Amino acid sequence: MIKTKNLHIVLSLFVAVILLMPGIGCKKDEDPARETRYNLKVQDVLGVTGIVTFIETSTTASTIAIQLSGAPSGSHPAALYTNSAAEGDTPVVELNPADDSGLSSTVVKTITYKELIAYDGFVKVYKSSSESNIILAQGDIGGNVLTGDK
Fold first, then answer.
1. What is the rounded CA–CA span in Å between residue 72 and residue 65?
2. What is the DSSP string of 111-147?
3. What does the mean pLDDT of the chain come to?
4. What tens digit of pLDDT does each residue of 13-29 get?
5. DSSP of 7-49, one letter per residue?
6. Which residues, 6+ apart, have CB-to-CB distance to 110 below 8 Å?
7. Phi/psi at 101 (nearest 5 deg)?
């Protein structure tokens, strides 16, 4: 009788361990990186549009990614500005230029993701460094984006 009782205890413990194993040592998946997208609209060169995406890389860094479509070949400088595109202003952060594929990615440590999505600013992409008076595309970001509410 004692052997049967001990066997039941051992079996119960074994079953309990088996049932609890999936939770042991498992780490919950990290929350996926937050990201916000804004449209870049055609300016001086017809057919060029794009998207700028702010990606939360960490609590102290963000990635600003640009994807252009319809852009001519070459390197296209870009920058983050204060104020709205209609107001214009001086650049605050120079971004890596968009390449021949229309892509650019810049890690920024001076402005957090939370600050970027509330930022009073816009992004502008130029045709080239020698033709900085020709704007391929630009778009308001953060608090400047027009919605149905503001």
1. 18
2. S-HHHHHT-EEEEEEES-STTTTSEEEEEEEETT---
3. 83
4. 554 445 555 555 444 44
5. HHHHHHHHHHHHHHGGGTT--PPPPPPPEEEEEEEE-SSTT-E
6. 93
7. -85, -5
Degrees to nearest 5, angle at CA 47 with 45 and 49: 95
CA distance 30 to 118: 24
Instruction: Of 135, 115, 146, give the one whose Cα is nearest residue 46.
Output: 135
Between the alpha carbon of residue 101 and those of residues 19, 47, 68, 72, 75, the distances in Å are 51, 15, 8, 9, 9
Residue whose token pair is 């929350």? 31
> Which residues face 106 on adjacent strands?
64
Q: Cα angle vertex 56, ends 79, 129, to 5°?
A: 15
Q: What pLDDT score was predicted for residue 148? A: 47
Low-confidence ranges of the chain (pLDDT < 50): 7, 10, 15-17, 25-29, 148-150
The per-residue pLDDT for 143 is 78
pLDDT of residue 68: 96
Exposure b/e, 10-36, CB count within 10 A at least 16 = b: eeeeeeeeeeeeeeeeeeeeeeeeeeb
What the block records as the tokens of 124 is: 């502008």
